[in-house]
């Protein structure tokens, strides 16, 4: 597992029609005539014969007494009368693996640069997942694949062999794991599904499978795409019947992991402690991770897995994440053969998956990758995919991420325009490129109990509106950003008093608040139209370049005006509103902020240009939060701020150098009052911002490298794809366990190149008595072979807790 470092499928079998006596006779016959019994079968026979009489004498009387007398059944109401019985189905002949319905009819594959997904198409059913892992040779013998994927039939298994795992396991096939599809008609029919493939269309990077179940009258489309070594999977289920179909679960994708995996890295946390990756063992059974808040502080929708020897930089590793900003379910379950089925999908509340005749349900996309280079290799694949295929920029490509100053921690609700202008003046001298006015600028919003929803400037604070402040910001060469929380409303607001019916609520039940807030039903056209109008007015009137979009409470009893759950539609409506704002204001950038990491996922990444990973800006904690987040999110879209000292949350005092070094690698920002900085602190902060600007072409386009991650030291970096440049953070969280610090290894450098290693300013050399070589590291730099830096390591001067250095490596 990374070092600070889930829903499968299954159906029941049919009950035996033999009587107890017939079953006992069969056991006696087996015992008499079998020539070779396994130990397990022998014990089962002895148990069935030896204790059957005792159990029968004990259980028969009460069972007989409990058996009701036969009586004519009462007539059923017309609406619940059974349908005419269908013709009895034929019983297929017994068939071993590779015979009958499991006869292999084709091999399907998708390949990434270092990954292969291998499928077997059989005569009946959906394709079997035969393999997902490292890249296989281009020319594989299909017959050999069929042979190695033809096991024997287990005891008490089906007489007609079926594969253990397909692209969508359903109720009605022969397995007993959590099914990927759970659906039925209102009268309880069509609760099983046995899909048959209708058509397959394949290109080098895409596989589309159309299937259907004529008996249940449902259709299925499975879409698999592979790009930049990331597999993207999604499904569409369609109702072809003449009555509604009630879908309780439909996963986005099913993945096969090897039996050797003993633990999976699950992301868990809470507000201010997001993106923690913790190993969960999986000896038997399964692990199910669910989030039902429509926010993901508790569980980010991602998971990683590796073999026992897999590390951050070496060994086979697998990872998956769901592109969805609502509830989700991840399930990893050991199958009967020991391998692991991983399923990922959204969490559907009751009724959210109901399909009327002719309607369809599209799942969000799940993204998965494999790497032979450990968990860092998975992260690099995710970053490359997001940069090329997911992120959308107003100008078509990412501009240098502007260093910003956010007003919240410096001012909170105490917004005085003259003091804001002083902060803006100093920020401009520091090199800040974007000023963001946070909460408190509108309506009666002088605290968190009133005004939310009334999106007009507070004239008591800004008598002429926001445009004079915006002009002041722009005149100093900076962009102007503004905070909104559009999905929320305070009960004490003009908006709620005018439209109490606009909020999500279960009519007749108490209307519960959180943070003094209620949630607007933005799936209503009138609500979405209102928000689009009032936000657009501010974007135009105040020349807003950037919106910080907050979302500060979980959804609870979130019902629409008809009383139905609205969790899913709320997410879809949010995506639509973001897209409309981008369409109307083509240069606008949006940040997804939900009390920190509550909406920092790949669903949001398709619609916004920045995410806020945590409200916790304390540098020691941010070391861990950013480490977990960067396993899935590109650093350049994650806000990383230099806050004040002592920190507002934990009151820890840290140096400005430590705070700046920790924040350097992401989208850099300031979360402090620059007027309270001493002249020396301002100078040092300006130097750090200048260093960030010089390094950000590498930091924001390079490849992430995860090095050491222990309770006392964290090492990570970014290298250019060709290995010509590497920039590394070495952060000391606590005293080393040994008397002297161990050498620092710098992963990702080329072993056949030589580098000049420097500690760029404004850093100063620490330690008790640095060696001449360590002194040259700061003064002139050291020329060192990449193999030595990567594998032998570099001794740095001893560093006290909560200190850090940045190392820059340039190939000679």
Describe this structure in words.
- It is a single chain.
- This protein is α+β, with helices and mostly antiparallel strands and about 800 residues long.
- It folds into 3 domains: about 290 residues, Beta-galactosidase, Chain A, domain 5 (Distorted Sandwich); about 300 residues, TIM Barrel, CATH 3.20.20.70; about 110 residues, Immunoglobulin-like (Sandwich).
- About 25% of the residues lie in helices and about 25% in strands.
- It has 17 helices and 36 strands.
- The strands form 7 sheets. Strands 5, 6, 7, 8, 11, 12, 14, 15, 19 and 20 form a 10-stranded antiparallel sheet that branches. Strands 21-22-23-26-27-28-29-30 form an 8-stranded parallel β-barrel. Strands 31-32-33-36-34-35 form a 6-stranded antiparallel sheet.
- The longest helix has 21 residues.
- It starts with 19 loop residues before the first helix and ends with a strand.
């Amino acid at each position: 597992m990374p070092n600070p470092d889930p829903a499968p499928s299954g159906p029941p079998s049919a009950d035996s029609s033999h009587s107890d006596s017939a079953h006992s006779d069969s056991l006696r016959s087996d015992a008499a005539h079998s020539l070779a019994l396994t130990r397990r079968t022998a014990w089962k026979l002895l148990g069935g014969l030896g204790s059957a009489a005792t159990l029968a004498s004990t259980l028969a009387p009460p069972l007989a007494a409990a058996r009701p007398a036969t009586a004519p059944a009462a007539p059923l109401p017309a609406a619940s009368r059974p349908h005419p019985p269908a013709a009895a189905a034929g019983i297929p002949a017994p068939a071993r693996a590779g015979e009958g319905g499991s006869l292999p009819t084709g091999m399907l594959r998708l390949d990434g640069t270092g990954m292969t997904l291998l499928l077997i198409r059989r005569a009946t059913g959906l394709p079997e997942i035969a393999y997902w892992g490292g890249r296989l040779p281009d020319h594989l013998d299909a017959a050999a694949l069929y042979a190695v994927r033809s096991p024997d039939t287990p005891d008490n298994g089906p007489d007609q062999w079926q594969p253990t795992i397909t692209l969508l396991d359903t109720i009605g096939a022969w397995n007993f794991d959590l099914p990927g599809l759970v659906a039925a008609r209102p009268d309880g029919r069509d609760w099983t599904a046995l899909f048959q493939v209708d058509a397959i269309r394949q290109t080098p990077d895409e596989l589309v499978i159309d299937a259907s179940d004529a008996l249940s009258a449902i259709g299925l489309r499975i879409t698999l795409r592979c790009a930049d070594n990331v597999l993207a999977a999604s499904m569409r289920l369609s109702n072809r019947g003449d009555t509604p179909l009630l879908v309780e679960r439909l996963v986005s994708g099913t993945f096969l992991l090897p039996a050797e995996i003993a633990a999976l890295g699950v992301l868990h946390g809470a507000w201010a402690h997001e993106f923690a990756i913790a190993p969960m063992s999986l000896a038997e059974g399964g692990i199910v991770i669910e989030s039902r808040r429509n926010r993901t502080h508790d569980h980010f929708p991602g998971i990683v897995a590796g073999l026992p020897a897999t590390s951050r930089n070496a060994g086979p590793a697998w990872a998956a994440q769901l592109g969805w900003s609502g509830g989700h379910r991840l399930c990893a379950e050991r199958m009967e053969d020991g391998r692991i089925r991983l399923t990922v999908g959204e969490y559907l509340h009751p009724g959210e998956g109901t399909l009327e005749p002719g309607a369809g349900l599209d799942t969000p996309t799940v993204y998965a990758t494999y790497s032979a280079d450990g968990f860092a290799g998975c992260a690099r694949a995710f970053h490359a995919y997001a940069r090329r295929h997911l992120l959308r920029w107003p100008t078509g490509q990412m501009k240098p991420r502007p260093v910003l100053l956010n007003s919240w921690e410096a001012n909170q609700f105490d917004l005085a325009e003259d003091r804001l202008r002083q902060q803006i003046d100093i920020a401009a001298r520091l090199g800040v490129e974007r000023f963001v006015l946070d909460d408190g600028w509108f309506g009666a919003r002088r605290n968190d109990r009133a005004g939310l929803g009334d999106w007009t400037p507070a004239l008591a604070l800004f008598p002429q509106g926001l445009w004079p402040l915006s002009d002041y910001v722009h005149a100093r060469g900076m962009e102007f950003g503004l905070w909104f929380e559009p999905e929320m409303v305070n009960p004490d607001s003009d908006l709620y008093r005018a439209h109490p019916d606009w909020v999500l609520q279960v009519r007749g039940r108490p209307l519960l608040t959180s943070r003094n807030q209620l949630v607007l039903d933005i799936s209503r056209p009138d609500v979405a139209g209102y928000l689009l109008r009032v936000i657009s007015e501010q974007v135009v009137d105040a020349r807003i370049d950037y919106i910080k979009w907050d979302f500060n409470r979980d959804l609870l009893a979130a019902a629409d005006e008809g009383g139905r759950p609205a969790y899913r539609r709320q997410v879809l409506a949010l995506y639509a509103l973001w897209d409309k704002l981008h369409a109307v204001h083509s240069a606008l950038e949006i940040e997804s902020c939900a009390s920190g990491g509550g909406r920092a996922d790949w669903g949001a990444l398709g619609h916004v240009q920045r995410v806020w990973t945590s409200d916790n800006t304390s540098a020691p904690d941010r070391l861990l939060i950013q480490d977990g987040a960067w396993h899935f999110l590109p650093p350049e879209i994650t806000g990383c701020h230099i806050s004040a000292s002592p920190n507002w949350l934990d009151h820890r005092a840290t140096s400005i150098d430590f705070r700046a070094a920790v924040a350097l690698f992401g989208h850099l920002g300031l979360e402090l009052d620059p007027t309270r900085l001493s002249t020396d602190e301002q100078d040092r902060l300006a130097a750090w911002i200048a260093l960030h600007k010089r390094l950000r072409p590498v930091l924001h386009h390079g490849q992430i490298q995860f090095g050491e991650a222990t309770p006392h030291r964290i090492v990570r970096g970014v290298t250019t794809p060709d290995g010509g440049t590497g920039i590394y953070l070495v952060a000391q969280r606590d005293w080393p366990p040994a008397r002297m610090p161990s050498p620092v290894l710098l992963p990702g450098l080329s072993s056949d190149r030589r580098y000049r290693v420097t500690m760029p300013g404004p850093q100063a050399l620490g330690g008790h008595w640095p060696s001449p070589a360590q002194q040259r590291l700061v003064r002139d730099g050291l020329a060192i072979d990449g193999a030595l830096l990567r594998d032998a390591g570099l001794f740095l001067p001893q560093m006290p807790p909560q200190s850090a250095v940045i190392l820059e490596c340039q190939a000679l």
